[in-house]
Write a structure and sequence with these properties.
- By secondary structure, this protein is an alpha/beta fold.
- It has two domains: 74 residues, no CATH class; 218 residues, Vaccinia Virus protein VP39 (Rossmann fold), CATH 3.40.50.150.
- Helices cover 28% and strands 25% of the residues.
- The protein contains nine helices and eleven strands.
- Strand 6, helix 4 and strand 7 form a beta-alpha-beta unit.
- Helix 1 crosses helix 8 and helix 2 crosses helix 3.
- The relative contact order is 0.14.
- The N terminus is likely disordered.
- The protein binds S-adenosylmethionine and zinc ion.
Length: 305
Amino acid sequence: MADRGRGLLDCSTMTPETPPRSPPPGSRDAGIVVCPVRGCGAPLAWGERTLRCPAGHSFDRARSGHVHLLLVQDRRSKHPGDSAAVVRARRRLVEAGAADAVADRVAEMLREARVGPGARVLDAGCGEGFLLRRLRATLGVEPWGVDISSAAVELAAKALPAGRWIVANADRRLPFAGGAFAAVLAIAARRNFAEYARLLAPDGRLVLGVPAADDLVELREAVQGRADRRDRTAGLLEALAPHFRLERQATARSRRRLDHPALADLLAVTYRAGRAGVQRRLAELDALDVTFAMDLVVAIPASAT
Ligand SMILES: C[S@@+](CC[C@H](N)C(=O)[O-])C[C@H]1O[C@@H](n2cnc3c(N)ncnc32)[C@H](O)[C@@H]1O
Ligand SMILES: [Zn+2]
């Protein structure tokens, strides 16, 4: 096996000559992150600059403190996931309040489930990390974020150095020990339910979010000429059933007036910007009232009593 994971990793985030800005997480984290090398899976010990397993596989921490554990064979392109431009657009939107209703409702759901100070919470598909920043501020949870996009994880780590930020593929086995998390969140993200069930403590909670039927309905009508009002929750619950039991459902909804640049950002983060005719119709919009609506589901591992 290659020493230091050489040849296996995307080295773009490695800066061995500069120490990371954030200190290594404390001993509470021992054994939580495991080696992603096939057939290894041993616990990785966090150091200032590297994470290392007993077999000698080691992974450098980037300057921002995040760790790249995505092996070459676990990605389809050199820069998988959201691009830097999409990630920056999402950051601008959340800073303008676009995700406040979702963050408030998720915090309320976790509070009800007694996920509180110090609880380890994994956001799978964390993007630029907004939800974990808010949950740390409101509930005091210990934030763990994973995303396949290096650009997203880097931005998340810079904004919250106290978090644990990992680049990995949520469609594969994630590099964490089983039962490590009090909650796993997947908001508009991947649906690897078997894996999320493995990662949760027996009394843990999975929180899922899918866009509701009226999400962005005004924008979709304006730029696509029509808006399907598709309910995604029934399909979600069906896919969830083999692994989880439904505990609670709710919808986070808000309406905001967005100016032209914010509408352009919204089209970018919903991957619509490149569609035929969209830019032409966007050019005609000065501002628009837009509905943000996310169907949220809280579920308990089916194995829990
Ligand atoms: C629609 S965004 C949602 C981001 C965030 N959860 C939110 O609610 O704003 C989807 C995120 O999933 C990430 N992603 C896509 N495929 C992934 C995969 N296979 N594993 C992990 N993350 C992935 C993207 O990079 C992006 O950050
Ligand atoms: Zn190893």
